Amino acid sequence: MEPVPQQQRVRRSSRQRDAVQESLAANDAFVSAQDLYAAMRERGNPIGLATVYRALQGMVEDDEVDVLRTDDGEAVYRRCSPSHHHHLVCRRCGRTVEVAGPDVEAWAAEVAAEHGFTAPDHVVEVFGTCAACTAAATDEAAARS
To answer: Could you report the per-residue pLDDT of 57-80, keeping only the tens digit for each?
Structure first.
């Protein structure tokens, strides 16, 4: 019997994986495995940290979640739509918005072709400060004056 290639494997659903998926779905921001684990434990789920990491890794491999690296190298995860998209991420609160980027897609294809590359792939994440955090910072600054 030949082994099944990774991209053709179908993972079995498990109670733990389903719980990790539910916790991610309840979050609008990217979250670390340790923060997700802590939140799940607070809600009474007896899941182990290693199980959270395994579930997240499987979901990344299955393209069910997106993963980013923070400035300090920590992996953070978010359940996203299945279509190709980019993210706007608030540096302050982590709020994340999915955005389409047709101009980015065209630019990536053009630059790749100019240099003789085919089948280009890319990841674009835009970091800034969301409106709510900007307003809060303005209010904090005004209060200090």
So the answer is: 999 998 889 898 888 889 999 988
**Torsion from C-alpha of 77, 81, 84, 86, nearest 10 degrees:** -50
Per 3-state DSSP, what percentage of the chain is helix, strand, and coil (rounded to 5)?
45, 20, 35
Q: What is the pLDDT of residues 105-140, one digit of tens each?
A: 888 899 999 999 998 888 888 899 999 999 998 888
CATH fold for domain 83-145 = Dna Ligase; domain 1 (3.30.1490)
CATH architecture observed for domain 1-80? Orthogonal Bundle (1.10)
Nearest residue to 98 (alpha-carbon basis) of 113, 107, 86: 86
Q: Do residues 14 and 62 make contact, with C-beta atoms less than 8 angstroms apart? A: no
